[in-house]
Design a protein that fits this description.
The structure is a single chain. The protein has 16 helices and six strands. The protein is 55% helix and 7% strand. A six-stranded mixed β-sheet has the order 1-6-5-4-3-2, sandwiched between helices. A hairpin with a 2-residue loop joins strand 3 and strand 4. It has three domains: 154 residues, no CATH class; 143 residues, no CATH class; 51 residues, Orthogonal Bundle (434 Repressor (Amino-terminal Domain)). The protein is globular. The longest helix is centred in the first third of the chain and has 22 residues.
């Protein structure tokens, strides 16, 4: 489970974190525009990508963003950003699911991708050349994060070049170079890629952040919605306090001790080239209080098995069970698109698609609502 899933699925954590997070008015932008507002310019439009393709593009962007940052100091960062990729875990899953002869092609392309990553970091190839490899890595990562699900289109679709996604990725990268790299990083910057927060990350399924540059922790978002999101803010704030606790626990033994210097939390809204920043000094005297509350929450999560189960697996109030096939059949019978069904349920089209593909499950409340609409009996 990722931190995102934990925030989405744990009512106990939601109640706790929402009392701590800053509001929209607590942020400012580096451009001077009003944060999360209509003042933004839509620089990298999502040109009709499906929800799954948008997700793949977002993951591929995470890769190319890190690689572009690594270009500022290739000798230092080349090995860091090309090792221990989440995509490799997806590749390992495929090795157990498909015949070895077929798998060789997937393994070969992965090795090629790693070679091209190293060339890109040293500016020997451009983003257009490497984009297809990064989309491939993003698809492998989706296999891992979905628990080993193979795409509906078949395993071969993972190898297929996706011109729509590549075009979107190139556009996002261009905006990133103009609006992020030029303003926020130099060859002298201190960079930590995918910072991990020790046992606090492990307690919620290995959660790690996107990147820390100097004294700022960044989270990259490629979604179209430019409005304030308490869940996105909760991610940043959670990483911040997990970092404080991890460094405090590890003391001088921690290789990530320098993460204690994080002062700013920043959300990079990739389709707009905007960076929304929160200065943690605004916590003021409450910083110690919030840190202790975080510590108590995670200690309870670690030591109280009943609380752990409650957070990760909220006990159903009945034996209602709704699966993706039920939803798909209901939509077909009633001539509803995924978007129309989503409006009926109060969720977006992407959520409905993920329910139908089995990538995620409806919450208990949503299962109850769905069962009432499509008349599934307990």
């Amino acid at each position: 489970m990722s931190l995102t899933q934990f925030i989405n699925n744990s009512p106990a954590f939601q109640e706790f974190i929402r009392a701590i997070i800053p509001t929209r008015s607590d942020f400012y932008t580096l451009s001077g525009k009003t944060p999360f507002s209509k003042d933004y310019i839509y620089l990298a439009p999502n040109k009709g990508l499906t929800s799954v393709k948008s997700s793949i593009s977002g993951t591929a962007f995470d890769y190319i963003a890190r690689l572009t940052i690594a270009q500022t100091n290739p000798d230092k960062y080349s090995s860091v950003v090309s090792q221990d990729l989440v995509a490799q875990s997806g590749l390992q899953i495929l090795s157990r699911k498909i015949p070895s002869k077929v798998f060789k092609r997937f393994d070969r392309k992965y090795c090629e991708a790693i070679d091209e990553i190293k060339k890109f970091i040293r500016k020997k190839v451009d983003s257009l050349y490497i984009a297809d490899y990064l989309v491939y890595l993003a698809k492998l990562e989706l296999v891992f994060r979905s628990g080993g699900l193979i795409p509906q289109e078949g395993v071969e679709s993972i190898l297929v070049s996706e011109s729509e996604i590549i075009e979107d990725l190139i556009c996002l990268h261009s905006v990133f170079e103009d609006n992020f790299i030029a303003q926020n990083i130099s060859c002298h910057s201190s960079v930590i890629f995918n910072p991990h927060f020790g046992k606090y990350s492990n307690l919620i399924g290995g959660a790690d952040a996107d990147i820390i540059i100097d004294n700022t922790l960044y989270d990259f978002k490629t979604i179209v919605n430019k409005g304030y999101s308490w869940k996105h803010t909760a991610q940043l704030v959670s990483y911040f306090f997990m970092n404080i606790l991890n460094c405090s626990m590890a003391n001088n033994m921690s290789t990530d001790l320098k993460l204690q210097n994080v002062r700013y939390l920043a959300l990079y809204q990739a389709r707009y080239g905007e960076i929304c920043v929160f200065d943690t000094e605004k916590f003021g005297d409450k910083l110690k209080i919030y840190t202790n509350e975080f510590k108590e929450f995670f200690e309870k999560l670690e030591n109280d098995k009943a609380f752990f189960v409650e957070c990760f697996l909220p006990k159903p109030k009945s034996n209602i069970s709704v699966n993706g096939d039920d939803i798909k059949k209901f939509r077909a019978d009633n001539h509803l698109s995924q978007e129309q069904f989503g409006l009926l349920m109060g969720v977006n089209k992407k959520t409905v698609r993920f329910w139908e593909l089995g990538y995620s499950l409806p919450s208990y409340e949503n299962q109850k609502r769905i069962s009432e609409v499509i008349n599934i009996k307990n």
